[in-house]
Design brief:
The complex is a heterodimer.
Chain A (H helix, E strand, L loop, with lengths): L4 E11 L5 E12 L4 E5 L6 H8 L8 E2 L4 E4 L2 E2 L5 H10 L1 E4 L3 H4 L6 H12 L4 H14 L5 H4 L9 H13 L5 E5 L7 H18 L2 E6 L2 H4 L5 E6 L2 E7 H6 L4 H8 L48 E5 L2 E4 L1 H7 L1
Parallel strand pairs in A: 3-9, 3-10, 7-8, 8-9
Antiparallel strand pairs in A: 1-2, 1-4, 1-5, 5-6, 10-11, 11-13, 12-13
Helix pairs in contact in A: 4-5, 4-7, 5-7, 7-8
Chain B lengths: L4 H10 L1 H23 L31 H37 L1 H16 L2 H11 L5 H10 L3 H14 L3 H8 L4 H37 L11 H8 L8 H28 L5
Helix pairs in contact in B: 1-11, 2-3, 2-11, 3-4, 3-6, 3-7, 3-9, 3-11, 4-7, 7-9, 9-10, 9-11, 10-11
The chains are: A alpha/beta, B mainly alpha.
């Protein structure tokens, strides 16, 4: 099996008060094939953004990726790269689009210079070639009048255009994998759809893999091939998007669906999930979702549920699935 | 929050104190640059025996105890004082920015080492060091005075820049820049330095005023700019015995010091007000 990205047992640790250890990402495994879109979905604090940062070795100190974790890109171990090779991977093989383009662009540099800088960091190109390439990229991400916008400062662009510019920069190094970390959170709903459409078009035209991080399941529908649902530092359910939407297996996934409005079914009331995501230095024992679960069994608070495979590439971390299988 | 440096300057210009200060400074600099060409030689003594003469048509600000033209000496003194101050601050700024950027960006033991050196240097009063150095080095040449003033003035700037870098490192755009493979050199020169420039500019402007005062004080003690080169502090020193009989010999160079420092500080105030996001 030749996956582009292969993450195994990723564990991220932070020192916590009183000599304890916070583990906001605890044993995450996921794979991504070329040209595929995987959505990583979960509430704030579930560890999804940290997982994305770890792929670029950008876990903010004092956090660290625990020994025993493995991140393979085309079989190359990202966790043992020397600094020069790491810089080449960042932007050159894995690109990332952060959620807020306003703060993710350097306010003192023009869009064009941020683009050409990235282009020239990853390939030999003269200033003129880099400029041409940059304008082509701005055009590719759907920015009108790219030659004019090339000379614009970030604050001179609208929010949607800024996000497009940020995407162009992340593409400048021709990455094989694009991570989009809630790329539309800061945008209007209409612009959201356009940006997601753009990402999908780019994936197809460039044959990239896309890791789409979102807290909103509704955003993911029809745009991801597979969905991994994260809760409290673990993936609790992974499935093809269609199956997940048809028959979510994990009570948490089901609860997520109940908490978003749907256009095709008469809405009685939206039911939010009670409580909040627990703190990473005090995950609940056994099943981490059991204090908030509406189908909790006696054993859920005593024994850690196993990961139950449902189909190839599909699994759920829940005792209910064990019972149904028998 | 803070946009580009151009935006900062634009906001500073909106403050009246920024405009007034800039206007005065501009006049001073222009006078210092072109004035000497139209004035008497500041070191020539037309009639030494006559001594200090009051303001007249020939000498609008009078003459000093050696019968030298006070106007010419004040204008030539501006040239010297402004040049020394500007170069010393430029030097201090460069050193301070470099040390602060390196300490803040690399962190760890490099940061600890550099900042302990700065701590130690800040614990030694600058004036003591200067007095000691200048007492030992009699008749110090101008370039050496610039060097001495510059190398003793960068410590606070390095701390300021380091603080800015530490703040900037938390900004998403810095993370984003690392995420696209930006190396250390480009990180420091293209991302950190331009974004730290605002506070540095404010510190530099106020630093110019400090250095002018410091240089005047040292020259007044006879340790700074050496005669016959005209300097404002030196002129006040020469005027000491004549304070009552020929007050113009002290008033005009003294006023020049006050007006210059005031103008510089007005600009500095406007810049620091413009830097405050609440004023935007």
């Amino acid at each position: 099996m030749s996956n582009l990205l292969d993450v195994k047992d990723l564990r991220i640790e932070f020192p916590a008060p009183a000599g304890r250890l916070a583990v906001p990402v605890d044993g995450v495994s996921l794979t991504l094939a070329r040209g595929e879109t995987l959505a990583l979905v979960g509430e704030s604090g579930s560890g999804k953004s940290l997982t994305a940062l770890a792929l670029l070795r950008l876990v903010p100190p004092p956090g660290r990726i625990a020994p025993g974790s493995r991140i393979l890109l085309d079989g190359e171990d990202l966790l043992s790269l020397d600094p020069a090779r790491l810089r080449a991977v960042r932007g050159g093989r894995i690109g990332i689009v952060f959620q807020d383009a306003t703060t993710s662009l350097n306010p003192t540099l023009t869009v064009g210079s941020q683009l050409t800088e990235t282009i020239r960091a990853h390939r030999k190109a003269s200033r003129g070639e880099a400029r041409e390439r940059a304008i082509a990229l701005l055009n590719e991400v759907g920015i009108p009048e790219p030659a004019v916008r090339f000379a614009a400062y970030p604050h001179e662009l609208s929010g949607g255009l800024r996000q497009r510019a940020l995407i162009a920069i992340s593409l400048a190094g021709e990455p094989d994998l694009l991570i989009a970390d809630e790329p539309t959170t800061a945008l209007d709903v209409t612009i959201q759809a356009q940006i997601l459409e753009l990402l999908d078009r780019l994936r197809v035209s460039r044959g990239m893999a896309v890791l789409l991080i979102a807290h909103d399941l509704g955003l993911v529908a029809g745009r991801a091939d597979r969905v991994a649902v994260m809760y409290a530092g673990q993936i609790v359910e992974e499935a093809a998007t269609a199956r997940l939407f048809r028959s979510p297996a994990h009570p948490y996934t089901q609860a997520l669906f109940r908490s978003i409005p749907r256009i095709d079914t008469p809405v009685e009331r939206l039911s939010p999930i009670g409580g909040g995501v627990p703190s990473p230095d005090a995950w609940p024992a056994a099943c981490r979702f059991h204090p908030r679960c509406d189908q909790v069994l006696p054993r859920c608070s005593i024994e850690t549920p196993p990961v139950v495979p449902l189909a190839p590439g599909e699994a759920v971390r829940c005792w209910l699935a064990v019972r149904e299988k028998r | 929050m803070i946009g580009s440096l151009a935006g900062l300057l634009r906001r500073a210009w909106r403050h009246p104190s920024g405009r007034i200060g800039t206007a005065i400074l501009l006049i001073l600099v222009l006078t210092a640059v072109i004035g000497p060409a139209f004035l008497a030689d500041p070191v020539v003594m037309p009639d030494v025996v006559a001594g200090a003469t009051p303001p007249s048509a020939a000498h609008p600000l009078g003459t000093d105890h050696l019968n030298r033209d006070v106007l010419s000496r004040v204008v030539n003194g501006a040239r010297v004082s402004l040049t020394v101050a500007a170069l010393a601050v430029l030097l201090a700024l460069t050193a301070g920015a470099a040390v602060g950027l390196i300490a803040g960006y690399f962190g760890g033991w490099i940061d600890a080492l550099l900042m302990r050196v700065v701590d130690a240097a800040l614990a030694i009063p600058r004036l003591f060091v200067l007095l000691l150095l200048l007492v030992v080095w009699e008749r110090i040449p101008l370039y050496a005075l610039v060097l001495v003033l510059g190398t003793t003035g960068w410590f606070a700037t390095s701390r300021l820049v380091r603080g800015e870098v530490l703040r900037l490192k938390q900004e998403p755009f810095v993370t984003a820049a690392i995420a696209i493979g930006t190396g250390s050199w480009r990180m420091i020169t293209r991302h950190l330095l331009p974004n730290a420039a605002g506070p540095v500019l404010v510190a530099a402007t106020l630093g110019v005023g400090d250095v002018i005062l410091l240089e005047s004080g040292l020259s007044f003690l006879g340790l700074g700019i050496q005669p016959p080169t005209p300097s404002w502090g030196g002129m006040v020193l020469d005027a000491r015995p004549l304070l009552l009989s020929a007050p113009w010999t002290a008033i005009f160079p003294g006023a020049a010091i006050v007006v210059t420092v005031l103008a510089v500080n007005l600009v500095g105030d406007a810049l620091s007000a413009a830097l405050d996001p609440r004023s935007a």
